[in-house]
Amino acid sequence: MIVIENVLSPEVLAEATKALAEMRWEDGRKTAGATARRVKQNQQADLSTRAGAKVRDLLLDTVKRHPVVEAFARPLKFAPPLISRTGVGDTYGLHIDNPVMGKGETRIRTDLSFTLFLSPPETYEGGELEIETVFRTESVKLPAGSLVIYPSTELHRVAPVTAGERYVFVSWIQSAIRDAGQRAILFDIANLKAALARTFPQGSPELLNLAKTEANLIRMWADA
Ligand code: NI
What we know:
Layout: E1 2-4, H1 10-20, E2 25-27, H2 34-37, E3 40-41, E4 43-45, H3 50-65, H4 67-73, E5 75-78, E6 82-86, E7 91-95, E8 100-101, E9 108-109, E10 112-117, E11 124-126, E12 129-132, E13 137-140, E14 147-151, E15 156-158, E16 161-164, E17 166-175, H5 180-196, H6 205-221
Antiparallel strand pairs: 1-14, 2-4, 3-7, 4-6, 5-17, 6-17, 7-15, 8-9, 10-14, 10-17, 11-16, 12-13, 12-15
Helix pairs in contact: 1-3, 5-6
Residues 95, 97, 156 line the site of nickel (II) ion.
């Protein structure tokens, strides 16, 4: 699990916030799986409108281009994203995300889930994303424009909102590196590479060898 701060620039966040006011909202149960439907109570933006598609593409492109998202998740495919609104009394009870989403060309295996917070935390009460890991429950409530990526293998819920409104942008990632342990090794190597690039000159044997190791592990492990 990783938190990435300030994924959205102030300009992109302002544009998304403005767009939220013009969205058409529908019942969130429409996109929930059979077990999640019973515990899901929120609204989702209709992203099939021109304004909806524009903000969806803006946010998804920004997430896709982020270098830490790339290094941590190694995305192969993204599921169609959602923008959800959780108002007073709404909640999304404990559930597991669908393991496979979409059909045909858009079919993906969900390895990782992400939530990009769009509302400043001081504008609503409750609404924490709570993820049950093996050791503890992680409670996540981030500044607007920040993102959490977590394994889709974990049970999670959204705590009831008791004041204000919580807006988030969510989607799922099929990683090119299916195994979480292998993904973690590649993330360590990416971080090490960035750290060593501050000490060793570009093209040095040390950096070249590390790049070779990274490339060959990806070659060994990647689905494509
Ligand atoms: Ni979920």
